Amino acid sequence: MIGFPIDTGSVVALSLLNPDNKIPACIVSSNMYSNRSETMVLGKAARDALSKQGKKAVVVVVASLSNRMFTEHIDPKDDKIHSSKDDEWNKKILEFFHDGRLEDLSQLSRDIHGQIRIQKVAAYKPVWWMAATMGQHNNYKGEVQSYEPLHGSGGAVIQLTPSDESVGDKEFDEDDVEYYHGDRNVLDRGNL
């Protein structure tokens, strides 16, 4: 097979959210080898395109929380989070989502990766893309609809809605996408 494989998670989510394809939709798959700068630039491009066209959009991200899965078949009734450490980190992530702290979660992506993500996955990139696309701030109302194990990994359904009633901006330690210099010289900064 030549080309990029279909992202099963996105296709399944889209068929559940939009079964009759009545709503225009676009699927963007994450490049597992991209770093923060590449992911942020892609999210910012989506945000800019929507703004230029005067459109509003719903952002749906399909990703696991912790990413350690059982290597042997298990009966679904015996499913559980792979380890208590993964469960604790999943709950911490969900606490940030519940509090609407998307940008804070984006800033913690590398720490999260070091604790609960398998090494083939380059950081917890979904939050980078979400923050760049939705807005790099913490001004969201968050709702955690569900949290369950998925063959050892953590899965949740959450909702973030823009809000004036939130925890507000905290400390940001990385560049804003409006003036982003990039990691690993992805965007040439010149001779600074």
From TrEMBL:
GO molecular function, one term: oxidoreductase activity, acting on single donors with incorporation of molecular oxygen, incorporation of two atoms of oxygen
Recorded coiled-coil stretches: none
SUPFAM superfamilies: LigB-like
Top-rank lineage group of the source organism: Archaea
Gene3D superfamilies the UniProt entry points to: LigB-like
Residue ranges of every copy of the Extradiol ring-cleavage dioxygenase class III enzyme subunit B domain listed in the record: 5-154
Protein's UniProt name: Extradiol ring-cleavage dioxygenase class III enzyme subunit B domain-containing protein
Organism whose genome encodes this protein: uncultured Poseidoniia archaeon
